[in-house]
Amino acid sequence: MEKAFFNVVFKRHSIRSFKNKPIEDWRVKQILNASNSAPSAGDLQAYEIFLVTNERKRRLLAEAAYQQEFIAEAPIILVFAANPSRSASKYGKRGEQLYALQDATIAATYAQLSATALGLGSVWVGSFDEKSVSKILDGNDLRPVVIMPIGYAAASPELTPRRKIEDLAHII
């Protein structure tokens, strides 16, 4: 069983080209359920997930992400937003400034790995104008952290080299 998990981890790559093919509802639900099972500080789940299917909103998100047009190609986009006030209620400033961001990114990671396990492609987009994305989503006090287009991959990217473990992991 653990072998299957590592296959998913090593199979995941950033996909920036999507087929014009809808994603089945059951796959979307699996991804959202996986995100919902992600750990969070104090089990508060200090994040919100926006499932964007509307074509106009997908285009607006691509514009807000500095014209990264591939975003609009994906049939769905998940936007993960930190909910700082939810975390601050228990953890104060640290919850507001850090834990809510961590909660949102962990949930996004679970979504990305789930998409891969389900035969879908995705990419983590962090380069965007936060105020514009918040306005598109009517996110009020939320802080957008990740835009994640998801769909069936139209192309396989070249593998990028990774750092050597010896350079990355430090024994102290």
List the helices and strands and how they pair.
Blueprint: H1 2-11, H2 25-36, E1 47-52, H3 55-64, H4 70-73, E2 76-82, H5 84-117, E3 121-122, H6 130-137, E4 143-151, H7 165-168
Antiparallel strand pairs: 1-2, 2-4, 3-4
Helix pairs in contact: 1-5, 2-5, 3-6
How would you sum up this structure, described in words?
It is a single chain. The chain has 172 residues and is α+β, with helices and mostly antiparallel strands. It has one domain (14-155): 3-Layer(aba) Sandwich (NADH Oxidase), CATH 3.40.109.10. It is 48% helix and 14% strand. It has helices at residues 2-11, 25-36, 55-64, 70-73, 84-117, 130-137, 165-168, and strands at residues 47-52, 76-82, 121-122, 143-151. A 4-stranded antiparallel beta sheet has the order 1-2-4-3. Helix 1 packs across helix 5, helix 2 crosses helix 5 (84-117) and helix 3 packs antiparallel against helix 6.
